[in-house]
Amino acid sequence: MRLWIIAIAASVAFGQTHRVFQLRKENKQDPEEIAMLLRGIVETRQVSVDGVKGTAAVEGTAGQIDMAGWLIQQLDVPANGPFSGVHEYRPQASGGDDVVRVFYVRHAATLEELQDMAATVRGVADMQRAFVYSPPKAVALRGAGQKMALAAWMFEQLDQPANIAAPPPHEYKFSADDVTRVFELMHPQDSRQVQEMASLIQALADTPRLFIYPTRRVLALRSTAERVALAAWLVAELDKPAGEQAAAQDSAKPHEYRPRDDPGNVVRLFYMPISQSAEDRRKVALQVRATTRIRRMHIYSARGVLAVRGTEGQVAAAEKVTGAMR
After folding, report:
1. Of 178, 179, 180, whose CA–CA distance to 166 is shortest?
2. Quick check: 184 and 166 in contact, CB under 8 A?
3. DSSP 111-168
4. Contact between 123 and 209 (Cβ < 8 Å)
5. Distance (Å, rounded) from C-alpha 286 to C-alpha 301?
6. Rounded distance, CA 154 to CA 124, Å?
7. d(Cα 289, Cα 267) in Å, to the nearest integer?
8. What is the pTM of this model?
9. Which of the 8 DSSP states describes residue 211?
10. Taking a C-beta distance cutoff of 8 angstroms, is the pair 200, 300 a contact?
């Protein structure tokens, strides 16, 4: 008893308080999931959830307890809602641009899809604190208001029914030269082809912040305006039916792009015969690399494309190599 009194006194001395919240009966089965979310968003390690009793105990400052109570009120709801409106909390004690928001996802059929969507939004919006709570298909985020606005737009783009296009525009400007673009791919046959196109764009357009949401075959990219423009050109060239291969090969006009932020380099697509084997294409790429010293190149096998980026001299040499090996 004496130790308990000392502990309470210490908590009061440091401005800490303690509260136990009762959870709905149907949400008792996910104690660790909601505990992890509360710890991450509220920023207190003193959270424990009892799945048998259906309680969540939180210790922290008055502001942390208030935030935890608000979060539980948003999350501890029936699985079928209602979820209309904007669910947002602004901590008073932060004194700055700090927003907590809960998004309810409607069109994720599985936990994996929900987690993929949350990871894509988190990566694009640069949110350090993003947590999933599966019973109501909720994602809780905490960050600056401008980042939260980008996250809200991303959810609108991704959380759509199957085979229904997201509402335009598909581009969001965080600032004049900080652009996010969402590409809904139409023609890749499987996730491997989506990954292959993403890797090509990442390499050729210098865009490390590129994320895949596989459920909708979406590429979400955030970069400078010029690099997003190059990525858009690559998607327009590559995301076509395989039957258009012959027309692309016979075109007298080269398939190339000249980046405005890198005038010394050219991006060029070489269309190899669609009947050519994957091994033969790899041999062509190895020969091009050995002859031209081009370091940035990638094959998109679905359309038999060798994409390269280098100086005009290197690209001209690559054209000779590819022409000789057809």
Report:
1. 180
2. yes
3. HHHHHHHHHHHHHHHT-SEEEEETTTTEEEEEE-HHHHHHHHHHHHHHS--TT-PPPS
4. yes
5. 15
6. 8
7. 15
8. 0.88
9. E
10. yes
pLDDT tens for each residue of 149-194: 999 999 999 999 988 889 999 999 998 899 999 999 999 989 999 9
CA distance 173 to 156: 15
**Cα-based distances in Å from 242 to 34, 46, 192, 249, 319:** 47, 56, 16, 12, 22
Choose among 149, 27, 64, 164: nearest CA to 106: 164
Instruction: Please check whether residue 105 is in contact with residue 120, taking contact to mean a CB–CB distance below 8 angstroms.
Output: no
**Taking the CB of residue 15, how many other CB atoms lie within 10 A of it?**
10
- Point out which residues pair with 142 in neighbouring strands: 100, 129
Cα-flanking dihedrals φ and ψ of residue 268, to 5°?
A: -135, 140
State the amino acid at position 250 in one-letter form.
D
Q: How far apart are the first and last CA of the chain?
A: 86
Identify the three-state secondary structure at position 274: coil
